[in-house]
Amino acid sequence: MTRKELNLAIFEGTADKVLWQPRLETWIFHHMAKGTLPERYRDLDYLGIYDALRCSVRYAASAGIEVYEDPADIVKTEELHGNYYIETFTTPSGTIRRVDQVVWENGEIVNRRTCQYPVKTPEQLRVVIDITERQQYRANLQAFQEAAERVGHRAEPTIFLSSDGFTELIKHWCGLVDAHYLLHDHRAAVEEYLEACARRDDRMIDAALQLPCRIFNLGDHTTNEFTPPPILKKYCLPRWQRISERLHAHGRFVHTHWDGNSRLLLPYLQESGLDGVEALPPAPMGDMTLEEIKTAVGDKIVCLDLLPAIHFLPHYSMQECLDFAKRVIDMFAPRLILGISDEISQVGQIEKVEAITELVDQVCGLAE
Fold first, then answer.
1. Domain at 3-69+119-363, CATH from 3.40.50.360, 3.40.50.300, 3.10.290.10, 3.20.20.210
2. How crowded is residue 188: how many other Cβ atoms within 10 Å of its Cβ?
3. Mean pLDDT, residues 135-145 taken together
4. Which residues 6+ apart lie within 8 Å of 227 measured at CB?
């Protein structure tokens, strides 16, 4: 069985082994850029490194949905002033501005973080609704096929769909605190925005269903802090149920991304309609034990990842890392796509990835 075949079989519920599919992009591209790849990987390209590690790759074939604006009447400007990067968005409803503080290293920008979010009022949110309503999607079958052929036997293609509208409000437009204040003080305006996001979801799924992709991801970033149970029940659950029902009707699978403290949300997984949940960092990284996660997913929902990223740092021993990985396999196989929650960092020890490759091979055999 190839890694591609096993990837799909796990979602179909017909697998008898585990797929080892860590996300290594941050580590690979950092060390490629810095010229610090270990000697054994130095002459390999991105997919060549995955092959040397005998790992599956999750998102290398995420292509085939093109985004465009209609009507194309949004004016966006970008300016860099010293340590500040400023974006402005102008639509028929007005203008909003985001300010990011940038971090320089050797004359290059290596990081940035938002220090002034663009939305605090319903009037400013109206600009975001304009932006959302203008987001349109079309399928590009050739792009999908080229990406899938490039990945080949390594994985079944997985395509990103839209994130949850409320978490996007937090991440991109308001920040955590102001998003919750805006919902409390101007619920009707926020719900109008979420309705626009739902229409955008439908437009994107219309395009997605024109592609032969079987697995889709919702990059929701759902956590206790972002979407506590009252918000999750009112806004997230109906969205997941609606999207799942629509994709299932066409023989597709869909999973969500929960990459922080999510213990309070676990009881709602079974009624979400979702086929899987990605990330779910367990203790000692997150606030969930493996036992709590297993109770939540049962034998129905696929878990993707579950190995805490901090285990790949030097202050955790190789044996601690391997013992935890073996425990995860024993508890969650075969409804398990083993990976690192959320990703291995730039300073993570690739030797531990190599060792888990050997562990998976010993326990159930690696897919080809």
1. 3.20.20.210
2. 8
3. 98
4. 164, 166, 167, 235, 236, 265
pLDDT value of residue 108: 87
User: What percent of the chain has a predicted confidence (pLDDT) above 90?
Assistant: 98
Sheet containing 108-116: order of strands: 75-81, 84-91, 94-105, 108-116
279-324: pLDDT as tens digits = 999 999 999 999 999 999 999 999 999 999 999 999 999 999 999 9
Radius of gyration of the chain (CA): 21
The residue ranges of every structural domain in the chain are 3-69+119-363
Residue 307 tokens, joined = 């190995």
Rounded Cα gap, residues 133 and 170, in angstroms: 18
Q: Where are the alpha helices (DSSP H) in the chain?
A: 3-12, 25-34, 46-53, 122-134, 141-151, 165-168, 176-185, 187-208, 229-231, 237-248, 290-297, 318-332, 350-363
pLDDT, position 110: 87
> Which residue in 51, 17, 53 sits closest to 353, CA to CA?
53
In this prediction, residue 341 carries a pLDDT of 94
What are the tokens at 101? 């503080």
Q: What are phi and psi of 23, to 5 degrees?
A: -90, 115
- Mark 78-95 as b/e (b = at least 16 C-beta within 10 Å): eeeeeeebeeebbbeeee
CB-based contact 235:194 (threshold 8 Å): yes
